[in-house]
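New to this. Please check this fold:
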Amino acid sequence: MPPFSIRVVVLIAFALIVFLLIGLALWTYVKAAEIEKRFPPAGEMIDVGGYALHAVHVPRPAGADMPALVFIHGASGNLLDQMKPFRPALEGRAEMLFIDRPGHGWSQRGGAANATPDGQAAAIARAMEIKGISQAIVIGHSFGGAIAASFALEYPQMTAGLVFLAPATHPWPGGVSWYYDLAAMPVIGSVFAHTLALPAGMTRLESGSACVFAPNPNPDDYITATAPALVLRPAAFRNNAIDVANLKPYVTTVSSRYSEIKVPTVIITGDSDSVVLAHIHSEGLARDIEDAKLLWLKNLGHKPDHVTTELAVRAIERVAGLDVDLDAAARKAEAAIADDHATCP
């Protein structure tokens, strides 16, 4: 083939790739708008200093028997993931604050400090102050566990206690999934997030949720009730990827400080969690935080917030100082999930 023909073929191939990427970017733009229309903000925007966090604030009821509760969702999530199980279970008992972490759900990202858990903890502390919450029990699921631990380290006077649900808090062997590293990269990560991430992610919403819950079945309405599709929007996808890519180096440094935490703490984890290594994270917290109570449940996956909500509520009560037999509550929860055998597609 003559040299000029090779150049023509290369130019045609390049043009086709460019047109494909433009087409995917346009499709992503339209689909992201549809996702936002389907899942509009559920709460209010709180200005925390140059940017705003989206939150649902449930004021302290007259009959409250516990301190304020602040819920922090995990990676790829938003505040609905915690609000769905916990608001109905705790309504009328405590003031509650459900927050979209910076750059997730409907919250704005803010500055570069919000790319690590300590920055996000600072943003949550500012939102609490603005809503008049001087102290709270902080409940963190998965990635939210790293933020809850950082919150307790940086704002001990605002931390009444901690409840960790399948937390990710300590350095682990290996890295993270390739698409997190790719999406977190400058330039190419943005291209990926604006073209391929959303169409690929839409095909994995159901199966991905099933894998997070496995071996426990995920609720039939989980996708529609908790809006995980919001993370597939380009900016949110990249923010999520940057968070996850930064987590291991962050906890490698900060986990050595967990012994400074001196508040009542309960950790709920499962022996069938395929998302985080419970023997590293949960056992690490139980080792590092003095008098922390670790509850290991057989056949429990990565979603104790949804699968064992009642046990999580008992843990919150225990941290609040109420008389609760957590071991009995754990045995009851374990018996309820003993026959679960859902699989990851």
User: Anything to note?
Assistant: The longest strand covers residues 52-58. The longest helix spans residues 3-38. The mean pLDDT is 95.
